[in-house]
Every structure is written in structure tokens, then in C-alpha cells.
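Reopening this one. Same input as before:
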Amino acid sequence: MSKFIDGLKELKHKEIILAVAAVAIMLIIYFSSFTSVKSKQQSVAASEDYCLDMQNRIQSAISRMDGVGKTEVVINWASGVEIVPAQNTNVNGNSTSSQVVQSSGGPVILKEIYPRAIGVLIICEGGNNAKIKVDVIMAVSTLMDITAEKVLVFGMSK
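Same output, byte for byte:
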């Protein structure tokens, strides 16, 4: 221990400043990676909640249409929910650093970008009837903002 203290006494000011700066940079990198992991976990949970909620809402709405009957819905998503956190950016000379803005509950979220549906499969009791099939396709393509070609409707086996 005494050798370490003697070694510190012999260091020049520049070396101490560089050592403190290196430790500070390592701490910033460590804590910023921790918040990105937490943000990614929140993104996955939000994505699952959103996708499941939309699937349930579509299924509920379609099954209440006249003649449709019991319904199952499967939605294929292009991606998950993207969460965009607020960041502070500092510019010092030639270097730029950014840090996620934190509040008591975690990172401050600027916006959430929800996934886009790329295909919907509907299996329903009335799916063999041409009129019901067209009505279901039109309803789903309107609700999901996708083309009718990306919505498939099939009759349910008995």
C-alpha cells in the first residue's frame, strides 16, 4: 500500500488528470450500456403488449361482424416497438458525447414508434362465404392500414 502511495506522490499533474479522465470515461461507458439494456427490455415488453393488444382488438371486432362467428387472428409484424429516449449531447472541441436523460422512473422517453403490420391471417367460421370474406378483408385492411392483398381469410374447420 505504501508503494502505491509513494508512486502517486511521484506522478506529475498531467498523469493524474489523464488517469481520472480515463476512469470517468469508463464509468460513463458502463452506465450508458446499463441504460441501453434497460431501454431494450422496455422496448421488448412494449412491443409484445402492443402486438398482442392489436391482435385481440382485431379479433374482437371481426368476430362481432354479422355472419363471421368464432375467429382467430394472426398478425405478422415488420419489427417491434422502437423506444426513442431523450438524450443530452455535449460537444467539446472535436469530441461529441451523448447521455440518456434519466428521471426517477428510468430514462425519459421522447416517443414510441409502433410496428407496422405486414400480413394478417384470419380464420373464422364464416370464412367460406364470399361476402363475409370480402367484408373481413376490407375491415382489416382499413384498421391495419395495409393493402387487401396482405389479408387472408379462411373458413374454420368444424
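So the earlier flakiness isn't reproducible anymore. For the record, The longest strand covers residues 117-124.
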